[in-house]
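Give me structure tokens for this 324-residue protein.
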Amino acid sequence: MPTYSMRLIAASLAAFALAPAMAADAAWPTRPITLMIPYPPGGSADLLARPIAAKLESRLGQPVVLDYRPGAGGSIATASLARAEPDGHTMLMVLAAHAINVSLYPKLPYDTRKDFAPVSLVATLPLLVAAPLATPADSMPAVVQYAKANPGKLTYASAGPGNTSHLAAAMFAQTAGVDMVHIPYKGSGPAVVALLSGEVSLMFDSISTSLPHVKSGKLKALAVTGEARSPLLPDVPTVRESGAADFAVDGWYGIIAPAGTPASAIDRFNSAIREVIAEAPVREQLESYGYAMVGSTPQAFGDHITAEIDRWGEVVQASGAKVE
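Here you go.
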């Protein structure tokens, strides 16, 4: 039977073995944190991430560096995160496309449900249906009327195949029974440039990136996609008000880490994000772009992702969209 001295020695050895891991957790972060953005600079994810990243350094003691890795509806950046060391120094901002891609891509190089750890749902954002001034429609009913009279002539831009901007428009076209031609771009920024140049007829875009051009008179606002009107455009109706009774879509933005990332790092990063977006200057700046700030627990964000995978899976199946 072990003596008291033997038990004391065993306990000391166990504590010694645990000390490095405990010290590593307590010391996090020990170097700059990389926050990957799965779309090019200038898009809605970039507009959200920049002011938050700039404020995180004072709370974490290390800078948060934005790393843009666009392509394949965000799956290129997501695959890179799945391969990253799970030490809390590499994170990824994900959008609704993260949940959509599960159904859209038949062979993703990662498991969306198993390979990542949720950190926080940061914000939601309605889409704005915006159009160049030359588009021959000033409302959603007029869009439907024009599309039915001119099959195949109405085009819409998206931030990429399977992006919310793509599937929201496809959902509307299916609901309204019209034919619209999809023109995908590599991110919201390039898509809005195409919209401004008149290359496409309209776009279901994040309100944050199209709103400045509506306010400057370069684009016209046809509708917003949320359940209620946006306080930034109180005179612009929702798509639902415009005749699509069951239509409501909001984009969302959150942070994930590789599976196996220490809970202490996730919890600390979560707390830092929630503190930053609660600051009046940051919150007011982002709300002026149209974002509704959230700041959830990791568990709540994980539940949100699961629900979104199910919801968008039905939309992808109904639309027949697939990306090889």
